Amino acid sequence: MRDFQRLLFCTDFSENAGFAFDYAAGLAARSPGCELRVLHVLPEPAAQFWRGYINADEHIDERTRAEIDAHLEAYRSRAPAGLEFQAVARFGKPGEEILDYAKSAGVDLILLGRKGHGSLFFGDTAAHVTRRAECPVLVVPADFMKDR
């Protein structure tokens, strides 16, 4: 078993994602020279029809970007000192974007939280990533960190 060099933590900004982040940051901190990458995928609307409405307000992109950046910065502030940290946001289909980013970044391990029905990373996305990833995937269940 070798130390990890690049961990990818995928977040939907849920409470369970916060627990999963703590697990990912701890794991990265125990692997000398490891970098932690945090990815948030803003889901693409299922129908192209909605894009016109979503982009109708000229400031929505700026507001959305500011909110995402604030969430990502909150993760950065929780990362252990000295840990190389990189945060990225993408727009698209979560499973595909996670796999694409993991492959292009040479990720050793993908970590994501699972909280139950309605979560971005429950069911389709987690199943898609675990079935198709070219590296190991760790799914942290909702109750894992609650009482620790």
Please give a structural write-up.
The chain is an alpha/beta fold and 148 residues long. The protein has a single domain (6-141), classed as 3-Layer(aba) Sandwich (Rossmann fold), CATH 3.40.50. It contains 5 helices and 5 strands; from the N terminus they run E-H-E-H-H-E-H-E-H-E. The protein has helices at 15-29, 51-54, 60-78, 94-105, 124-132, and strands at residues 6-11, 35-43, 84-92, 109-114, 137-141. Helix 1 links the parallel strand 1 and strand 2 (35-43). Helix 4 (94-105) packs parallel to helix 5 (124-132). The longest helix is centred in the middle third of the chain and has 19 residues, at 60-78. It is globular, with a radius of gyration of 15 Å. It starts with 5 loop residues before the first strand and ends in a 7-residue tail after the last strand. 30% of the residues are buried. Mean pLDDT is 82; it is low at 53-59 and 116-121.
> What is the residue-averaged pLDDT?
82
CATH class equals Alpha Beta
The CATH homologous superfamily is termed HUPs
Ends apart, CA distance between termini: 26 Å
How large, in whole angstroms, is the Cα Rg?
A: 15 Å
Q: Give the fraction of residues assigned to helices.
A: 25-40%
Structural class: alpha/beta
For the sheet with most strands, the description reads:
5 strands, parallel
Can you write the helix and strand succession as a string? EHEHHEHEHE
Strand order of the largest sheet: 3-2-1-4-5
Number of domains: 1
- pLDDT below 50 for ≥5 consecutive residues: which ranges? 53-59, 116-121
Beta-strand portion reads 15-25%
Counting H and I runs of at least 4 residues, what is the number of helices? Answer: 5
Shape: globular
- What is the third-level CATH name, the topology? Rossmann fold
CATH architecture: 3-Layer(aba) Sandwich
- The number of E-state strands comes to 5
